[in-house]
Design brief:
Blueprint: H1 9-23, E1 28-33, E2 39-44, H2 47-56, E3 59-62, E4 65-68, E5 93-96, H3 99-110, E6 122-125, E7 129-130, E8 154-157, E9 161-163, E10 168-170, E11 175-177, E12 180-182, E13 191-195, E14 198-200, E15 203-212, E16 216-217, E17 220-224, E18 227-229, E19 232-241, E20 251-252, E21 255-258, H4 265-274, E22 295-298, E23 301-311, E24 318-319, E25 322-325, E26 329-332, E27 335-345, E28 354-355, E29 358-361, E30 370-373, E31 375-382, E32 395-397
């Protein structure tokens, strides 16, 4: 049984480090992001310590998917409703205490015809949130849990408007347990789509994302000109499939894709106006970002993830942190460990590109500038027969 301690942030952090210890062969690589962003890395050389820890953690291997044998039932589970009463529209900071209020945030951002992207507004998570009872996590691939999460933010189009989350989200070290997303019909993750957003100090535990046709990750499906700092994804499954030729989906343990979402908007605007269709004023280059700055992922971790991506006539990429980068980005001091991947073109049988931190970087519509710095990985495997990449030497493997 995994020793989970609901309500104890320090023990949650210790568990992340403990699992990192277990899955690294040889001398143990221990990593904790302490409060305040300080990262401590050190090694333990005692094999007896490894055996002791392994004995405290029971892992059940089912096919290619590894899941905990048993987990303590979560308290105060989300009742499936959305509470928007906390939002008044006249403040620059809001505190969220319940799963219902968190679902209300998703509902507000995703509502069409209302310009609430939370630009200049901070959302403070004030408690651990339980979206589902994670004691049934092992069976979620066959039997969905009670509650389905609606990712915060979505792409939209030039007529209905683009709906990203463009504010600040401070998790304050709290954790969101049991997120389940199924066939969202849009970018999928806790956040579907962020633009010029700041996400920090947030943990996602026991997440399951099963999506079709759109980029998918655990923390975010798509990130545009956003920053993620001191966040942890612990125990996640991300599946992303597409049966349409000509498009390529991607799956990332942390973020599905870093990209410029509406690069073709100017052309679409001209085309739509030519047909007499008014363009929605919510169309933007990037919310609050006229310089089109990059997306940055700093001191974040993906620990213990199952990533699956399949496509029709394309080789879909997967990455322990990010599936694909097609816009400027920086990934600094991040860790991906205990990652198992599967990526294949169902038509040709070719395996997709796969990296410990990054699956692939593309050069359309422009050559992408990105940096991977001081990142490390461990216990990375592929279940599709492909080779394991270490991101062209940019990632230190433990």
């Amino acid at each position: 049984m995994l020793p989970f301690y609901p309500g104890s942030k320090s023990k949650h952090r210790a568990l992340v480090a403990e699992i990192c210890d277990i899955i690294v062969d040889g001398s143990l690589f221990y990593s904790i992001n302490r409060k305040g962003g300080k990262k401590m890395n050190y090694r333990k050389s005692s094999l007896s310590m490894l055996l002791t820890i392994v004995l405290t953690v029971t892992l059940v291997i089912s096919g290619a998917f590894m899941v905990p044998a048993r987990v303590n039932a979560a308290p105060a589970i989300w009742n499936g409703t959305a509470d928007t009463s906390w939002y008044t529209g006249d403040k620059t900071s809001y505190d969220i205490y319940t799963a219902e209020q968190l679902a209300g945030l998703s509902q507000i951002v995703n509502s069409e015809g209302d310009d609430k992207r939370f630009e200049g507004v901070t959302i403070n998570l004030m408690a651990d949130i339980y979206l589902n009872d994670v004691s049934t996590y092992a069976s979620w691939g066959k039997a969905a849990p009670a509650n389905h999460w609606d990712p915060i933010g979505y792409k939209g189009n030039p007529v209905t408007g683009y709906r990203p989350f463009a504010g600040n989200f401070n998790g304050n070290g709290h954790s969101i347990w049991g997120m389940y997303v199924k066939d969202a019909g849009k970018y999928a993750g806790f956040f579907g789509y962020t633009s010029s957003a700041m996400i920090k100090n947030l943990n996602l535990y026991y997440s399951y994302v099963d999506n079709k046709g759109y980029e998918s990750g655990t923390m975010a499906g798509v990130a545009e000109s956003s920053c993620f700092q001191d966040c942890v994804v612990l125990i996640t499954t991300v599946k992303c499939t597409d049966e349409n030729a000509g498009s390529t989906v991607t799956a990332g343990g942390f973020i599905g894709e870093v990209k410029k979402v509406n690069v073709l908007v100017p052309f679409l605007e001209v085309a739509l106006l030519g047909f007499g269709i008014a363009v929605n004023p919510l169309v933007f280059a990037a919310a609050g970002d006229t310089n089109h700055s990059g997306t940055y992922i700093i001191r974040c971790q993906t620990v213990y993830a199952q990533l699956y991506s399949s496509d029709f006539s394309d080789e879909p990429p997967v990455g322990g942190m990010v599936g694909r980068i097609s816009a400027p980005a920086g990934i600094d001091s991040c860790i991906a460990c205990g990652i198992n991947t599967y990526s294949k073109d169902v038509l040709t049988g070719k395996v997709g590109k796969c990296g410990v931190i990054l699956g692939e970087a593309v050069e359309w519509p422009n050559k992408v500038t990105y940096v991977i710095k001081d990142c490390s990985g461990a216990a990375f495997t592929r279940a599709d027969g492909g080779t394991v990449q270490s991101d062209a030497g940019q990632v230190t493997m433990q």
